[in-house]
Amino acid sequence: MPSVRSLHAALDVRFPFSRAESWDKTGLLVGDFDAPVQRALITYEVTGAALDAAQKHGCQAVVAYHPLIFRPLEKLDFSDRTAGLCARLIRENRHLICVHTALDGAPAPHALGDALARQLGIENARVHHASGAQKLVQIVYFSPPECLEQTREAAWEAGAGAIGRYDEASFSSQGSGTFRPQSGAQPKVGTIGQREQTVEMRVELVAPEDKFPAILRAIEAAHVYEEVAYSVLPLLNASDNQGYGPLRLAPVARADLNEWIEHAKTRLNVPSVRVAAPDNLSDYSFVACSPGSGASFISSLPRGTIFVSGDFKHHDALLAKSRGVALIDVTHAATETASVEMMARALEGVQGIEVVRDEMRNPFDWV
After folding, report:
1. pLDDT at residue 254, rounded to an integer
2. Which end of the chain has fewer surrounding CB within 10 Å, N or C?
3. Can you tell me whether residue 72 is helix, strand or coil?
């Protein structure tokens, strides 16, 4: 039977928890990794209504975008919202995994910023002002020609071979390999104590450093040799494609602010927005978007940018106007509506797990 660990592992493949911001609280926040799970509720926020839904559908686990526990709990006073919800989870024997900035920092096109850019119809959007960079390694291994394809396919499936917006990248060359099996070996080719020379393929792949152990296990499982010869080299490649974070930016020829206001309202299904526009600026050359709270990115944006995000405050508006950046505030939740579906799809391939999608709720109403 699948477990909480199975859910966590599936989420980690699509949204690596190693990419979550250092200040964030992600992963298993309440519960037991080894507890069995048959049904999981996928929700945007942990609320009483969400836990009612988990109870109604018989869900042993809850997977939420926003972390329930964010600031340290100094006491377990159940009248406190966070402590009370944690107590209910424990009382009802439910387990909570939260994803948050691991989803924001996922590799393209699986990050929440990518989804928001697609919702808004922003073409050629790239990560801007990255919050982190993926460390890369080069994996080199050797294989007889007959198992080249199966080992390479296994490596790709485990996460190797992605370069920017391309995947399944590799290089292979043919050469001559030598080895001598020692006592106790069980060689596929050759004889104990005798040097063997055979045709071999040298295969080179680029991979995220944190995925190397899983990739090596996949290669070894698909390989015909008892011992796989390989080497791993750290890479110092400097590439924008390695950067990750929530902010997306794209050049747009003569973007019209009023058109983008209406565009944001329609695409994100909000009846109204708040706008802060620079005085005497009508020529915009860039469009940017960020899920959640985008204020911290204002200073990084070039002059002439239309920025769609949420949670802008008074002084954020003044800063943006002074820098020639127009703000469109659609509310925090409206920028994150894709999160539930993205998490649900990441879990649908876990055998033995039924995924239940919770209703997305924006805490703000329009009057």
Report:
1. 87
2. C
3. coil
Q: For a pLDDT cut of 90, what percent of the chain falls above it?
A: 81
Q: What is the DSSP string of 227-284?
A: S--EEEEE-----GGGEE-S-EEEEEEEE-HHHHHHHHHHHTT-S--EEE--TT---E
Q: Rounded distance, CA 282 to CA 256, Å? A: 7
Q: What proportions of the chain, in percent to the nearest 5, are helix, strand and coil?
A: 30, 25, 40
pTM: 0.79
47 contacts 64 by C-beta, under 8 angstroms: no
Pick the CATH number of 4-103+338-357 from 1.10.287.370, 3.40.1390.30, 3.40.980.10, 3.40.50.1360: 3.40.1390.30
Residue type, position 349, single letter: G
| CA max distance for the chain | 84
Please say if the pLDDT value at position 280 is more than 90: no
Of the pLDDT bands very low, low, confident and very high (cuts 50, 70, 90), residue 210 is confident
